[in-house]
UniProtKB/TrEMBL annotation:
Keywords, alphabetical: Membrane, Transmembrane, Transmembrane helix
Transmembrane stretches, start-end: 83-106
Name used for this protein in its record: DnaJ domain-containing protein
Domain of life: Bacteria
J domain segment(s): 3-70
Family annotation (InterPro entries): DnaJ_domain, J_dom_sf
Transmembrane helix as UniProt keyword: yes
Compositional bias annotation for Low complexity: 129-150
Pfam families recorded: DnaJ
Length: 156
């Protein structure tokens, strides 16, 4: 929706003279170009809107009330855009998470009661559930012997 300033083609801080010039510019544009032809319905509506904008903006009291109302509308619009943007962002996040969880590529949640090595095996597809040997059985059945510790003479 255009503001009254946009209808007249002036900036918001325009002086009374600039507002009047904008009004006359629109009158000349709509009336002089027609000659003796009657105005179309759309041209009449446009001319009426320009005339109404001039009446509001040419009166200091009406202009001040309009500026206050315009500022409040802009603030409400900005708040609604902020809320709408937040709603869209949260919706996109929820939908995205739903698509990820519903994906066949999303791994199943691990069973926390199972052994951690089994969980790692399930996630990486390795055989992590192999039985592991105890350190005592490794040292007794190991074909590699451990090097002898040099005996240190204690110098007391």
């Amino acid at each position: 929706m255009k503001t009254l300033y946009e209808l007249l083609g002036v900036r918001r801080q325009a002086s009374h003279i600039e507002i009047e010039l904008g009004y006359r510019r629109h009158l000349n544009r709509h009336l002089l170009g027609l000659g003796m032809q009657p105005l179309s319905r759309r041209a009449k509506q446009k001319l009426q809107a320009v005339r109404q904008a001039y009446l509001v903006l040419s009166s200091p009291g009406r202009r001040q009330a309009y500026d206050l109302d315009l500022t409040q509308r802009e603030q409400r619009r900005d708040r609604m855009l902020d809320i709408g943007g937040a709603i869209i962002a949260v919706s996109a996040l929820v939908i995205g998470m739903g698509l990820i969880v519903a994906s066949p590529y999303f791994p199943a949640w691990p069973d926390f009661s199972a052994d951690i090595s089994q969980q790692i095996g399930q996630v990486f597809g390795t055989d992590a559930a192999r039985p592991t040997a105890s350190p005592a059985s490794v040292s007794s059945s190991s074909p590699v012997s451990t090097p002898a510790q040099p005996h240190l003479a204690s110098a007391r």
